[in-house]
Each structure stands twice: as structure tokens, then as C-alpha cells.
Design goal:
There is one protein chain. By secondary structure, the chain is mainly alpha-helical. The chain has 2 domains: about 5-20 and about 145-210, Helix-hairpin-Helix base-excision DNA repair enzymes (C-terminal) (Endonuclease Iii, domain 2, Orthogonal Bundle), CATH 1.10.1670.10; about 25-135, Endonuclease III, domain 1 (Orthogonal Bundle), CATH 1.10.340. About 60% of the residues lie in helices and about 0% in strands. The chain has helices at about 5-15, 25-35, 40-55, 60-65, 70-75, 80-100, 105, 110-120, 125-135, 145-155, 165-170, 180-195. It is globular. The model has no long low-confidence stretch (mean pLDDT about 95). The structure holds iron/sulfur cluster. Iron/sulfur cluster binds near residues 151, 192, 197 and 209. The site of iron/sulfur cluster has 14 residues, from helix 10.
Length: about 220
């Protein structure tokens, strides 16, 4: 493991503790959560998933055939509910038509080919695809988000212009292909992004990564 990235990880884990991600009682629930969490808070996702559970449809048999308007109404608390219902239906259609209605079959696929297939589903971008692979599938696919980008760029570890796959490679080429490590690492970075490395007014003095900042402080975008 890269000494630098291991040090970052160890520093975060020591300061913040295990994050116990992804919150969800099943692989299906985790997958639904990865789509619902786009552009909203986790609190809203929990309300939407609560509606699905209370309605008795938080299972593959029910969800694969649930009419889209019923699905949209149930996930309304997550926002953009019509769009997200369509995205979920696209994902369910993939499970139904390309995975024999089976998550075992889906996650039995080779990770790279499954990732390509997920990226081919309308509404599933790299972050959602990687979250599905890592958190629902237990596969070693590092998840990158805007928090990760900001933290790394502010420290000068990557450039502000780096794209998703450059940042993903930055971790994957330096770390062992360990799903549990990737799981915890991403969760810790999200915690730092939410609580310290805010878009405006970052709270460096209280952040666990302050000692890893350059001596002149945050690197600003050019
Ligand atoms: S030390 Fe500052 S720049 Fe670095 S992660 Fe923390 S808040 Fe962000």
C-alpha cells in the first residue's frame, strides 16, 4: 500500500472511527439507496426507503414489476422522484433481463464487465456504478465523489482538473484491491467532506488532515 495513502487512511480512521457503511439491510436496499441518494441528503433517502419497506415492496420480486408511478410516489421524499423512479426501473430491467432476476447472477459477473454494463444503464454514472459494485457487491471498485476530489485537490495530491477515473486510479493503483479498505476509505472521506472540508469555509483547524496540508495551506484552484 502506498505509504502516503495508508497514512491518510490511518489518520482518518484513528480520528473518526469506523463508519459502518453502507447503511442498508440488504444488497437490494443498498442498490436502491445508491440511486436515491443522488442530489439529496441521506435523511430523505431513509424516508423514501422507509416508504418502500412499509409498503412491502422492498424486495426484488415486488420491485421488478412495480408500476413506475407507484414507485415514484413511494420514493417522493428523495426528490427528483420521477427521474429516480425511471433510473431505478432501468436498473431493475437490467437485473430482470440481463441477470436472470438474480442478484447472485449479477454479482457473479466479472467486475469490469459488470461495471461496463452498469454504466450502460441510463441514469447510472460512475459514482453510482462504483457504489453498487463496492457496497452491494463487495467488489473492489473505489468510489469517487465531489468530497474526495475537493480534499485531494486542496492538499495538492491531485489537480483540480483531474477527472473521475484519474482520481479512481490514484487510489486503486496504490492500494491493495481490498473491498473492506475501499469501503471504509470512501466513507471516511465523505465524513471529512461533510464535517470539515466544506465547499466554503473549510474547518481545517479541527480537521484530522490538517497536518497533511502543505505548509502554505490549502491549494486553491488556478
Ligand atoms: S485539512 Fe482543510 S483542506 Fe484538508 S481535508 Fe481538512 S478541511 Fe479540507
Amino acid at each position: 500500500m502506498s505509504v502516503h495513502l495508508k497514512h491518510v487512511f490511518d489518520t482518518l480512521l484513528a480520528a473518526l472511527g469506523p463508519q459502518h457503511w453502507w447503511p442498508g439491510e440488504s444488497r437490494l436496499e443498498i442498490m436502491v439507496g445508491t440511486v436515491l441518494v443522488q442530489n439529496t441528503s441521506w435523511r430523505n433517502v431513509e424516508r423514501a426507503i422507509g416508504n418502500l419497506r412499509e409498503s412491502g415492496v422492498l424486495n426484488l420480486v415486488a420491485l421488478l414489476d412495480l408500476p413506475i408511478q407507484e414507485l415514484a410516489d413511494l420514493i417522493r421524499p428523495a426528490g427528483y422522484f420521477q427521474v429516480k423512479a425511471k433510473r431505478l426501473q432501468n436498473l431493475f430491467a437490467f437485473i430482470r433481463d440481463d441477470c436472470g432476476r438474480s442478484l447472485e447472477t449479477m454479482f457473479g459477473k466479472n467486475m469490469e464487465s459488470l461495471r461496463e454494463q452498469l454504466l450502460g444503464i441510463h441514469g447510472i454514472g460512475p459514482e453510482t456504478a462504483d457504489a453498487i459494485l463496492l457496497y452491494a457487491g463487495g467488489m473492489p471498485s473505489f468510489v469517487v465523489d465531489s468530497y474526495t476530489h475537493r480534499i485531494l485537490a486542496r492538499h495538492g495530491w491531485i489537480g483540480y482538473e483531474a477527472d473521475y477515473h484519474e482520481i479512481k486510479d490514484y487510489f486503486e493503483l496504490a492500494l491493495p484491491q481490498d473491498p473492506q479498505l475501499f469501503n471504509e476509505y470512501h466513507a471516511l472521506l465523505v465524513c471529512v467532506g461533510k464535517d470539515f472540508c466544506k465547499r466554503t469555509n473549510p474547518k481545517c483547524p479541527s480537521c484530522p488532515l490538517i497536518r497533511l496540508l502543505p505548509s502554505h495551506g490549502i491549494i486553491e484552484p488556478a
